[in-house]
Design a protein that fits this description.
Bound molecules: NADPH dihydro-nicotinamide-adenine-dinucleotide phosphate
Mean pLDDT: 97
Number of helices: 14
Largest sheet: 7 strands, mixed
Low-confidence stretches: none
Shape: globular
Length: about 450
């Protein structure tokens, strides 16, 4: 008779929890996973996947507009938002079912309901206790909003993916991943978009040249970006809402969306009662093995607030399963994780930005290209692609690659392998380009960027 009902009990059937449970189940471990919402988690149900489907939808606006330069005559296109939302919902339901099937095929028992940890080896769901040798917390995160008057009127990305009608005018607050992605989506579908950010530029943490160029391109597409702007209050009107800034400006909108960050889902999980350490942001504190201060309790993904990206959660989850159930100890390597922002145009990046590299390595060489992609010669689109390499001047190692422009996320995946392998700039130069492509610019940049004296001295 086994000592515990399960060898691993996972709380949360999102990307990290499902990946870890399936891998553990694949090694023959007895695994259960609980979920109080739909199987698939944020990424599949209300994040990356539905967002990307809407991004694809929004990009047709460019294709219609650009086609004229290539000889096409397209009758004025019309767009049906409810039809897209319905199609998107069908696809999300299909994927959620696939996730259920994959769990079943890996021998993982799915228990529907909210799990609460009641001791280091017990999870309670709907009044029933399940014991497990290990507990894996993979409960994800949720959007947070600041506490200002009228905040009850705003929506988050959760609701933005399911709006019954396309807003004629939307105010989006925030300058991070989600805000810029949704600004591009609504702009593509023809909504008037006002984005309010509290800093000078969008996408804090990304390379400054990319941040500035993205702001220029988004403004060029008609998105109104208000920098150094904070919202004081929001009031409901007969039709829509008024957003008042701290300096008294008023903006009206049909919908006000906040994308001001996410917080780990640790409330009500019983963690404090059991003694699991969490940080000021509510994230489970874990070591390099994703183990909490309680040796039987592990945590992966957004709930640990390390790098909050789906593929990172998946890799962390698989590392836990390998370590615990395959005698193959793996620590997740959080260095050089590539990421992309599906803005219009999109951003892709891997490694250090220029500022980080200067701080860590002192002397760095910068290679930068900004050009009009070939397609834009005939389309007449003014948009310009930006590519940038950050190189350690001493070792010649490429420390960071950054791109703003069509296909940046697709291009960055391959470059991430080179950066992960420690490729030098010389190796980039020795690589033959693919012509004609935008990507070839990454292997043909010869001239170091010479910054104006003041910038270089900084
Ligand atoms: P981010 O942390 O990326 O951005 C939050 C934004 O909100 C920042 O611009 C921040 O400003 C601003 N902000 C925070 N608090 C306030 C406030 N009180 N008033 C005004 N502005 C405020 O969070 P997101 O919500 O955009 O996304 C959450 C996470 O989800 C991301 O960090 C990312 O890890 C993940 N994600 C990844 C995607 C991808 O890989 N493509 C897509 C979507 C999400 P400031 O810079 O000044 O702090």
């Amino acid at each position: 008779m086994p000592r515990y009902d399960f060898e691993m009990f996972t709380i949360g059937a999102g990307s990290g929890g499902v990946a870890s449970s399936r891998r553990a189940g694949g090694y023959g471990a007895r695994v259960a996973i609980c979920e109080d919402s739909r199987v698939g988690g944020t990424c599949v149900i209300r994040g990356c996947v539905p967002k990307k489907l809407l991004v694809y939808g929004a990009q047709f606006a460019d294709a219609f507009a650009d086609s004229a330069g290539f000889g096409w005559t397209v009758p004025t296109p019309s767009f049906d938002w409810p039809a897209l939302i319905e199609a998107k919902d069908r696809e999300i339901e299909r994927l959620s079912q696939i996730y259920r099937t994959m769990l079943k095929n890996s021998g993982v028992e799915l228990i529907e309901g909210r799990g609460v940890v009641v001791d280091p080896h017990t999870v309670e769901i709907n009044g029933r206790a399940y014991t497990a040798e290990k507990i894996l917390i993979a409960s994800g995160s949720h959007p947070t909003v600041p506490d200002i008057p009228g905040i009850e009127h705003v929506i988050s990305s959760n609701e933005a993916l399911d709006l019954p009608v396309l807003p004629r005018r939307i105010v989006i607050v925030g300058g991070g991943y989600i805000a810029v992605e949704f600004a591009g989506i609504f702009n593509g579908f023809g909504s008037e978009v006002v984005e309010m950010i509290r800093r000078d530029e969008l996408l804090y943490g990304f390379d400054d040249d990319i941040r500035v160029a993205l702001g220029q391109e988004m403004r060029g597409r008609g998105i109104e970006i208000h920098a150094r702007t904070q919202v004081a209050r929001i009031e409901k009107r007969a039709h829509g809402y008024s957003v008042f800034t701290t300096i008294g400006h008023e903006f009206s909108a049909d919908v006000v969306m906040y994308a001001t960050g996410r917080k780990p889902n640790t409330n009500g999980l019983g963690l404090a009662e059991v003694g699991v350490e969490t940080n000021d942001n509510g994230a489970v504190v874990v070591d390099e093995w994703s183990c909490s201060n309680i040796p039987s309790i592990y945590a992966v993904g957004d709930v640990t607030d390390r790098i909050n990206l789906t593929p990172v959660a998946i890799a962390e989850g698989r590392a836990v399963a390998e370590t615990l159930f395959n005698d193959n100890p793996i620590k997740m390597d959080h260095a050089n994780v590539p990421s992309a922002v599906f803005s219009q145009p999109p951003v892709g990046a891997v490694g250090l930005n220029e500022e980080q590299a200067r701080r860590q390595y002192g002397e760095v060489d910068i290679y930068l290209a900004r050009f009009k992609a070939m397609k834009n010669t005939l389309s007449g689109r003014e948009e310009r692609t930006l590519m940038k390499l950050v190189v350690d001047a001493r070792s010649d190692r490429v420390l960071g690659c950054h791109m703003l422009g069509p296909d940046a996320p697709e291009i960055m995946q391959g470059l991430a392998i080179a950066v992960k392998c420690g490729a030098s700039k010389r190796m980039f130069d020795q690589t033959v380009g693919i012509h004609p492509s935008a990507a070839e610019e990454f292997v043909t940049m010869r001239e170091k960027l010479v910054r104006p004296a003041k910038l270089a001295a900084d």
